[in-house]
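Let's practice the habit of predicting before peeking. Look at the sequence and jot down your guess about where helices and strands might fall. Then scroll down.
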Amino acid sequence: MDGWTAPSAIERELYGAKARGDWAAYLDVLARAELFLPQSRAQVDAEPQQARFHPGPGGASLAVYTRGMLPAPTDGTVFLRQSLAWFANAWDAGDPAHLAVNPGSPSEAYLTTTPADRDRWRAHWDAAPAWGLTPGAVHALHTGGALHGPVAHGLAVGAHLAVSNGEFWNALAYHGTGYTRERERLRKAWGITGREGWLDVLHRMLGAEIVSPVWEFALRVRRVLASDFAGPVDVEHWRHAAETGLRRSAERSAEPQLTPDGVTVAQPRPAAEVEGEIAGVRRLIGRITRYEQRFRADGLLPEDGWVRSVEGWDHGRASQMARWGVGTRYGSIDEAERAVLRASGAARETYRSWEEFSAGYLLGRCLHFDEEEFGEWYATSLATHLTLTTDPASPWVHIPWR
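Done guessing? Here is the structure:
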């Protein structure tokens, strides 16, 4: 169809194969694609492990959609992600005569469902090199997703997770890996099982309240020193300044406080507790310094660069958490849009470029997960950073930071 812009590469490939009349190629593409089956949300909530076939008018076909063709989420209908092989195995003699792929679109096809047809589906599935969007690559919606402007900037703040997970970076009307899998993701990773839990975590991320305040304290001390001395900060000077700040804080906490009820005499903190805190921060500064050395060697930071803040780890996760709320139906698209705009604003207040933001995001992630092993956590984060800062398809390449 002249003038039609396919939402993503999968729909473009399906349309091209159909236009050529190359149905073997069409099935090759379909075997690589995630297929989303519409379901009644009430039924799925009642029986999460059960997928039902709901034939269209007349009962002659069952509709499924590729990821780029999914409609905006609604309260009543949800989608379950399945493969072509799953449909081949789940079909029986009483099911519809056709599998309707992306009905109503230029990439649509009505596939017959005889046993011989389903054998062909399995053969194409067996030959497929991969399934779903490739993790680590940039994937975008070319229709139905913001590509420019403030919302796109906020979505791009969450691009680290979108790229590493193999998702469209700019999908605000988000379905992810399907309703039940998205709910399981939030339950396992965050303990979120409902709207209140989602809102609580999202708001704390937007306020950068989940990243460790100790990490941010150490980095803030260095920011102040760098501002005062307008140059590189020696590590021992940094450690000494952090120690001095912690001792002063401990002394202030022991001073009498004037309150509406009178003078409150505070108890001084145990010396061992204060000394333990100081020792911990000194070790932390050493860890940060070693990560930054590796960041410079790997091109994450310029030769004289350093990380301003780790708040970006929360900002980036907030952008993605907003979308996860849409996929789980814990939040609305309007709420997600407001959240990604706030994540964008918070990130731009803290950092001066995509590269600075990414380094802060990565340092937070590494301090939490990597334990200076420079293993898979570090390697995947580095690869995602390099992709986002160099790939011509990356939003960071074509969306200005400010």
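How did you do? The chain has a mean pLDDT of 92.
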